[in-house]
Amino acid sequence: AHQKSKCPLHMRGQVSSKAKSGTVRLLPIKAACSLGCQSIRPEPNRMKEETGISRDMYIEFLAENASTEANVDMMIIIHAKEDYVGAVEQALEDYRRRIIEENEKYPQNLCKAEASRMETIENYICFVQLGADTSVVAGKGKDEIISYCLEDNERAVDILEKAIFR
C-alpha cells in the first residue's frame, strides 16, 4: 500500500438547479484532497469541446482536474439522460483514447492515461484518471506506475459508488 494519494477527487462543483427531486446530487460527492484542484464549471460549450458530449445528453456534470499544466489527473462525472447513457459512455471512451494518444510522448502521463478508468453507475458515467505523485514508483517501470494509478482510480470509483447509492 502506498501513501494516501493527493488526488483531484476533491469535489467542489455545483449541481444544476433543474435536478429533479429524488435524483442523486453531485454536490455531496467529496473526498479529502491536498492537491490544488479546480472545478470546471458546468459550461455546456466546454464539455462539448472537450468530450463531444452536448447539453441535451446530460442532466448535470462535474469535472475536476489538477490546477497545474504538468499534472494530468482528472475526473469527470456525468449524470446522463436515460436515452443517452450509451452515447455518453462512447464519447467518454473516445475522449479517453484521445488522451492516451496525446500523451504517448510523455511516459509519466501516458501511464496515468492508460490506467484511466470509466465506470457507469446507473445513469452516472464516471471517468477517472488519477495517480497524483507517481515519483514513489517512477523508477520501478511502466507496469508499476500503471498499477499505482489503477489503485487510485479504483479507490475513487469506490467512493463514487458509495456516494451515488447512499
Give the SSE map:
Layout: E1 37-40, H1 44-51, E2 58-66, E3 74-80, H2 85-102, H3 107-114, E4 117-121, E5 124-129, H4 142-165
Antiparallel strand pairs: 1-2, 2-3, 3-5, 4-5
Overview features:
166 residues; disordered N terminus; single chain; alpha+beta; globular; 4 helices; 19% strand; 5-stranded antiparallel β-sheet; 5 strands
What helical percentage do the residues reach? 25-40%
Q: pLDDT average, as an integer? A: 74
Q: What is the subunit organization of this protein?
A: single chain
> What's the number of extended β-strand segments?
5
Net shape = globular
Query: Uncertain spans, ≥5 residues at pLDDT below 50?
Result: 1-42
Distance between the termini: 27 Å
Kindly estimate the percentage of residues that lie in beta strands according to DSSP.
15-25%
**Largest beta sheet, briefly?**
5 strands, antiparallel
- Read across the widest sheet, the strand sequence of neighbours is 1-2-3-5-4
Structural class: alpha+beta
